[in-house]
Specification:
By secondary structure, the chain is an alpha+beta fold. The chain folds into two domains: 53 residues, no CATH class; 80 residues, GMP Synthetase, Chain A, domain 3, CATH 3.30.300.20. Helix content is 26%, strand content 22%. The strands form three sheets. The chain has a three-stranded antiparallel β-sheet with strand order 3-4-5, with no helix packed on it. Strands 1-2 form a two-stranded antiparallel ribbon. A two-stranded antiparallel ribbon has the order 6-7. The relative contact order is 0.10.
């Protein structure tokens, strides 16, 4: 079945399966009280997402767009570190900064990445890590064709 038309497992909050050529990841956001704060459940982990004070939130966590930048930064760093480990390279400290400018009228979405490595990492390794960084799953998802399948389910909520 085409991965773009797969339906999540409706009986659970979190569902991640891997079959040959297919990975499905599920996150569920639930409103936390009467504010804009939401608790997001991913597997056995919870993350608080909120809006800044000037946007009507309580600023108890990053906003969704900040979380997108954090996802790209962390995925890039982890991808570089995993690749270096497989190659047996000791690259030491890795740091990735991401600045994200959402799309506006006439301007595309823009991500600026700065990857910091120790100055003693050989140039050929640095170049290979730069190429590998662009292959992290989050980078590929943002850079590739994206499709959305949306629906609304109406449920009765207990008082």
């Amino acid at each position: 079945m085409d991965r773009r038309t797969q339906q999540p497992n409706e009986g659970t909050d979190i569902h991640m399966t891997q079959t040959p050529g297919l990975t499905r990841i599920k996150a569920t956001a639930r409103r936390d009280g009467d504010t804009l704060r939401h608790t997001v459940q991913v597997r056995d982990h919870q993350v608080t997402i909120d809006e800044p004070l000037d946007a009507g939130g309580d600023d108890t966590g990053p906003d969704p767009q900040e979380l997108l930048a954090a996802s790209l930064a962390s995925c890039t760093a982890i991808t570089m570190e995993m690749y270096a480990a497989r190659k047996g390279w000791n690259i030491g400290h890795v740091e990735v900064d991401v600045q994200y400018s959402p799309a506006e009228r006439g301007c595309p979405t823009k991500f600026q990445l700065v990857m910091r490595l120790a100055d003693d990492v050989p140039e050929e390794q640095v170049e290979r890590l730069r190429v590998i960084a662009a292959k992290c799953p989050v980078h590929r998802a943002l850079d590739g064709e994206v499709m959305f399948q949306e629906r609304i389910e109406r449920v009765h909520l207990a008082a």
